Amino acid sequence: MAVRYERRGAAAVLTIDRPHARNAVDREAAEALRDGYHAFEADAGARALVVTGAGGEAFCGGADLKAMNNPANASEGPMGFTRLHASKPTIAAIEGWCVAGGLEIACWCDVRIAGEGARFGVLNRRWGVPLIDGGTQRLPRIVGLGRALDMILTGRIVEHDEALHTGLISRLVPRGTALDAALVVAEQIAAFPQECLLADRHCVYDGLGTPLSDGLKMEADIGRSVIGLAQSGAARFASGEGRHAAGV
Fold this sequence. Notes:
Layout lengths: L2 E6 L2 E6 L10 H16 L5 E6 L4 E3 L29 E5 L2 E3 L1 H8 L2 E5 L3 E3 L13 H9 L1 H10 L3 E2 H7 L4 E3 L4 H14 L2 H14 L4 H14 L1 H12 L10
Parallel strand pairs: 2-3, 3-5, 4-6, 5-7, 6-8, 7-10
Antiparallel strand pairs: 1-2, 8-9
Helix pairs in contact: 2-3, 3-4, 7-8
């Protein structure tokens, strides 16, 4: 199978399993990624999605340029799901090469955790292949306009230390442990009251690009919708539960 979908505790794990091709995505893999995304969305018990690549050499090398049969006009995105927005948290567990469309998949995720030695880049620049899976839109939102344009225009390789410094990755862990670290984060996320967590995540994404006054109003409106749960949480805190960051 080009892509494996499995449940690991509270997480759904979507693994691109084409290590012979640095986990590059062809049409079959793209369709399997799309199906895995929809399986995650339909699974109420899966509270976070972890996307990763098999073999350790690469997270994803982008579209398979040898096959060059990805559905460019697919409404969900040529790489499977990159034009969709997950309703629950998503985490990229990155080992090795994370380039071209693979970088776009990583940028689609909320959190990016990389093992030491991971390398990033818009390497499709070398072959005249455009970013059409969200890279031109998400990368600037993550690292800023100047850094994104530097990567997009030069196609240079970004090493793990620079990726951490610029915020391209959220966490750097020892080589070979990115998936384990991502699963720990997924369980941490799953342990929190979900209505409030999802409301805050929703506000972050929907507030991007809006005037501050509009964003604050949206935050207040959505916050009021879960305020009853906040009151019950405050009562638990007042009774002594979770003091001094216990359980975090």
